[in-house]
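Need the bound structure for acarbose derived pentasaccharide, inputs here:
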Amino acid sequence: YKNPYYAPGHSTMVHLFEWKWDDIADECERFLGPRGFGGIQISPPNENVIIWQYNRPWWERYQPISYKLVTRSGDEQQFASMVRRCNDAGVRIYVDAVINHMTGEPRDNIGTGGSTADFRQWSYPAVPYTAQDFNWPHCVIDGWDYGCCPDKVRNCELVGLKDLNQRSEYVRFMIVGFMNKLIDLGVAGFRIDAAKHMWPEDLQVIYDRLHNLNTDHGFPSGARPYIYQEVIDFGNEAISRDEYTGLAAVTEFKFGLELSRAFAGGNQLRWLNTWGPIWGLLAHEDALTFIDNHDNQRGHGGGGVILTYKQAKQYKGATAFMLAHPYGEPQIMSSFDFTDSEAGPPMDSNGNIISPAINSDNTCGNGWVCEHRWRQIYSMVAFRNVAAGTNVNDWWDNGSNQIAFCRGGQAFIAFNNDNWDLNQNLQTCLPAGAYCDVISGSKSGNSCTGKSVTVGNDGRAQIYVGSHEVDMMLAIHRGDESRL
Ligand code: ARE
Ligand code: CA
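Answer from helper R.:
Posting the output first, comments after.
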């Protein structure tokens, strides 16, 4: 369950938060596939309760009312078409699976597919689930429980969401049926929402009953789904991420916290020369890594000060480091712009999601941030693909916040997070020749729209990153996008 089965030459997952299926399919074909992205985490595809009381917040999608594939993102047919088109473009789909619970007790009672429920009776006829399918007696998790009481964290309600009993064979059957349907439609794996709130042994049973990936969608025979489990573990709670790594991969929340701290200036970049498990991070193959996610970018769930698109220079620096470094399986957040942390995606007065507009400079409009379309970010996905299979070598630092390293003989990157210029003759490990920096610009014909770098026969080059530049890094590599 730890292999994402990316298409050859692809890497990196992007979370297209609240995107519609038709728009995702277009994005696979026009951008993500050609740019070498590996996969997409989509918002939960199954029917959720509509919450007009809070003007359709993004979090209504974490309140399932059935397993029908009908949401604001699209219906089952649109879902199937998206998966087909994305797989054909070499981009995998990973489903955010909300299987710990159903809804809370919202004032509204109608789902995105027209289903209703009787919340107070734990009755969800469109699945169907009845009271006996939920944990009993009913209780709600409070903050203290995380420190003391694994049984409460797993058997009580997370923020009042009706808590399913995954020990029940019937509940397992419904969950497995839902997930297998998605696998048969061609998805490559799952994010397991609120995995901490389910017993590892129950999850193991569920995972082991999943189908192999669909060979009609280009997966090898016998391939198991990629599973990454949402377990927030900063090391001070009764439930540890280590209880889940035996099953499948785990979301590594310390990763974004430490890189955010460093790139926001709270820790010197030179210390990143040991980046990886020495920092208390999970083993490489166990870690789904990211700077921010849809919760902590808006102060929901998970502690710490996290960089987001709102601190663009530092955020791009942290993201570039994530993509340049071989540790972990990276995921990029792709957001809609927000000031209100509850607000849902751009929508019309009927609650329909408004599609992102695509500008001529590759960026998005209509309220969509599309970090994955920022040149400094998608260029680093290409960098990662060129550097695949190599380690970090020829680390250099200035004893503070200027660092540089090579990835084998494939790629080179330098960062300057000091408030003075970086201007050094450094080892790039690349063949002699001229290269375009893929951060300040791109290659255009036989020249560079941004900086160019001349590598000598000894592999060395003069590297300049001014402290007042828009970006704090410079990156060159052997791929077509950089080599002149
Ligand atoms: C909403 C309302 C609530 C209301 C509830 C039920 O906001 O006020 O009580 O509905 O009516 C998201 C939102 C929630 C929202 C929920 C359902 O964030 O606000 O509730 O959707 O609509 C813990 C969990 C972790 C979880 C975070 C948020 O361990 O699994 O809390 N993250 C996932 C998703 C969320 C989603 C859910 C789970 C629910 O990523 O987007 O919630 O499906 C410490 C602990 C963490 C704990 C954290 C916060 O750090 O270590 O384990 O995270 O505190 O409590
Ligand atoms: Ca539970």
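Comments: The chain is about 20% helix and 20% strand. Residues 100, 154, 163, 197-198 surround calcium ion (ligand 2) (CB under 6 Å).
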